[in-house]
């Protein structure tokens, strides 16, 4: 009978590393909209979502809540733009990192 | 009144309840299905759950229980914080993303993730051949593997392995053999995890 290692109970760092960074990501807009939305993109991530992304989502959520309460649609339209720019920003960071690794 | 749904992951067509506490104490853990896709959910009051240590742990604990309560139920995990406004918006996303969810479920069918990190002692070094040997031996006991960030100088290997639920014992033996052969290295072995590192889905929406 060969000896066997047992996986340790997981450290919080291991949990954070996975849960905040990996797994299915669904845009806030797709999660809160009931009418009139069309889900356009189902795509593999080019870059892994980061804590920055999470924070961006968190701030979007509060804006959505605000917009829902006040019924101010302009606020919601702003969100899409912010999401896009956040993604571009993130990809830029990722490219920079890749460049560092390659050097 | 709790009207929103915190979602933990997606499984193949199923219906069950788990009497454990989820994120923000939501209980029970239950299922919401659209056709043959089932989301694991619990009720939640906020669209923005606090990213506390406790909540993060609970997200992971729920997924572990989802796996273990059916002796290896396949689950595609969500990232932390995926709250849906209602059952209706959740079903809408399950429907729209059904191809991606279905493919992800197939990709990790019957599998769990195991993590292995190799840490060197302070001031010690390790040669590339050693790392390559370890990586090769562990990969041979797994279906797939991915490399994660080496966030410290002392971390010389950080990989996640996709292993069949029923083959975990064999993988654990491979880990033990590595430990026996390289006693001066620290082998950190974690899991089983939901296969976080082996799903790659992002769903967006437009008006």
Automatic annotation (TrEMBL), chain A:
Domain of life of the organism encoding this protein: Archaea
Span list, region Disordered: 84-103
Alphabetic keyword roster: Gas vesicle
GO MF annotation terms: structural molecule activity
Cellular component annotations (GO), alphabetically ordered: gas vesicle shell; vesicle membrane
Comp. bias regions, Basic and acidic residues: 85-103
Pfam families to which the protein is assigned, alphabetical: Gas_vesicle
Subcellular location: Gas vesicle shell
Family named by the database record: Belongs to the gas vesicle GvpA family.
Cited function: Gas vesicles are hollow, gas filled proteinaceous nanostructures found in some microorganisms. During planktonic growth they allow positioning of the organism at a favorable depth for light or nutrient acquisition. GvpA forms the protein shell.
Subunit structure as annotated in this protein's UniProt entry: The gas vesicle shell is 2 nm thick and consists of a single layer of this protein. It forms helical ribs nearly perpendicular to the long axis of the vesicle.
Alphabetical list of HAMAP family matching this protein: Gas_vesicle_A
Protein name: Gas vesicle protein A
From TrEMBL, chain B:
Gene Ontology cellular-component annotations: gas vesicle
Entry-linked Pfam families: GvpL_GvpF (PF06386)
Residues annotated as transmembrane: none
Keywords carried by this UniProt record: Gas vesicle
Compartment annotation: Gas vesicle
InterPro entries per UniProt: GvpL/GvpF (IPR009430)
GO BP field: gas vesicle organization
Family recorded in the similarity comment: Belongs to the gas vesicle GvpF/GvpL family.
Protein name, as recorded: Gas vesicle synthesis protein GvpL/GvpF
């Amino acid at each position: 009978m060969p000896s066997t290692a047992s996986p340790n109970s997981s450290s919080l760092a291991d949990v954070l590393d996975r849960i905040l960074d990996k797994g299915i990501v669904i845009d806030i807009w797709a999660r809160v909209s009931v009418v009139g939305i069309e889900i356009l993109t189902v795509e593999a991530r080019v870059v892994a979502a980061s804590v920055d992304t999470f924070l961006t989502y968190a701030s979007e959520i509060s804006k959505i809540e605000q917009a829902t309460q006040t019924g101010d649609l302009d606020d919601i339209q702003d969100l899409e733009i912010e999401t896009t720019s956040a993604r571009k920003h993130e990809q830029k960071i990722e490219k920079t990192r890749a460049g560092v690794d390659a050097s | 009144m709790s009207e929103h749904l915190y979602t933990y992951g997606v499984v193949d067509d199923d219906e069950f309840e788990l009497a454990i506490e989820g994120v923000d104490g939501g209980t029970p853990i239950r299922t919401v299905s659209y056709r043959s896709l089932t989301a694991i959910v619990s009720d939640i009051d906020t669209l923005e759950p606090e990213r506390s240590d406790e909540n993060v742990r609970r997200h992971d604990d729920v997924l572990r229980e989802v796996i273990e309560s059916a002796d290896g139920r396949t689950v595609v995990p969500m990232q932390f914080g995926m709250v849906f406004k209602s059952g209706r918006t959740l079903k809408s996303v399950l429907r729209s993303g059904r191809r991606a969810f279905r493919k992800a479920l197939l990709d990790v069918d019957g599998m769990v993730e195991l993590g292995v990190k190799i840490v060197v002692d302070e001031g010690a070094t390790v040669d590339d051949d050693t790392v390559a040997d370890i990586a090769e031996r562990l990969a041979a006991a797994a279906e797939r593997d991915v490399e994660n960030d080496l966030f410290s100088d002392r971390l010389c290997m950080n990989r996640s392995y996709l292993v069949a639920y029923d083959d975990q014992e064999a993988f654990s033996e491979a880990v033990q053999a590595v430990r026996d052969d390289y006693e001066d290295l620290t082998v950190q072995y974690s899991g089983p995890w939901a296969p976080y590192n082996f799903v790659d889905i992002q769903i967006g929406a437009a008006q």
